[in-house]
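Hi F.,

I've been meaning to write this up properly since the lab meeting, where we talked about keeping a consistent format for the predictions we share between groups. The idea is simple: the sequence comes first, exactly as it goes in, then the structure tokens exactly as they come out, then a line or two of notes. No screenshots and no reformatting. I'm using this chain as the first example so we have something concrete to point to.
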Amino acid sequence: MKIQLSDHFTYKKLIRFTMPSIFMMIFTSIYGVVDGFFVSNFAGKTPFAAVNLIMPFLMILSTAGMMFGTGGTALVAKTFGEGNSKRANELFSLLTYTSFILGVFLAAAGIALLRPVSIFFGAEGKLLDDCILYGRIFLLGIPFYILQLFFQSFFVTAEKPQLGLAVTVSAGLTNMILDAVLVPFLPQGYKLAGAAFASAMSQVVGGGIPLFYFFRKNSSILRLGKCRFDGRAILKACTNGASEFMSNISMSIVSILYNFQLLHYAGENGVAAYGVLMYVSMIFSAAFVGYSIGTAPVTSYNYGAGRRSELKGILRKSLRIIMVFAILMVVLAEVLAQPLSHLYVGYDAELMELTVSGFRIFSLSFLFMGFAIFGSGFFTALNDGLTSALISFLRTMVFQIAAVLILPLLFGITGVWISIVVAELMAVILTFAFLKLKQKKYGY
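Output, unedited:
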């Protein structure tokens, strides 16, 4: 049975509606994890460290897709809730075209900046060459990757979350198959290039298929067509999505600082170990991000339609669902710390020991991070971009940066792993403070 934005959402219906988005984000993370597996095991430790070192810069460039996707979804879904479907489709078209044009510009700028950025991050010698090689090929697909992130949010607004999942699976399979075909069998000097090519091609699939779908007549409530330039609407979408934009940029900056600290305390092994933690963390946090993406259009629609009791129900149910998710994730992470670390770096005993010890501490952060991710997304859906941005900014740029700079001075490398746990705990306290503060204004 088809679930619509205007439905009453029970626990069962809420989980059913958001599950495709959760799986979509988890699968996106998994095929990134597979990419890292092939690079680490077939190309070697230095290429793997190079990918982890340059990846934060590449992710900063792609954040425009998440910003226009989440911010635009809030605007378009609210417009649907107000009963103006024609205007909603015009806004959708405008934001799609803007995202792609911006993606082309960012790809060109990124290629030009790769070398100085890699040097700034501390890369030199072969590590520097590998950063540039991987980054240049990866960036060729960035315009489509931005569209992929953009459409991940809009498939939910279009009431087609299952189709969004299917597109993500297609992109992921493209990456996995090309990794499996290219990386193990190419000559040593080309293995890293093969992994980068696999990633770029998956982005073309992930962004290209939705573009084709929405340009054609389809069964969803969204379709690409003619639109006029509306700077105010673009600015509103950017404001709404500022938290997601800030969150992604901040996470990348934090990753850069982690790499700096780990290079200082543990050398190249530290960067490689952190890479494993990041890959696994991406999978676990993706479940929270997917749930947030899945509930956002429902929240925006009910806010636009003035259905305050439904809005209140969505918030209460979501917080309980996230609590259950969080407990299960911590237990699962602790159990899987050893086998997952072995999967990536089992070929190096010292690196393996470092990774497992960091993993067991780092995974405690999963108990807290879901609440801040959802809280930020909830305020984005309410078109309250400022509050959403404050949660994201303080969670990442303030709490995490302060923790990763201060705690290692007290506890050494253990302080690096602890810092994410402390920062996420502080973010939970902040999130609930804002939810209480804004309760009367939004009537939830």
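Notes:
The chain has a mean pLDDT of 85.
The radius of gyration is 21 Å.

If this format works for you, I'll send the rest the same way.

G.
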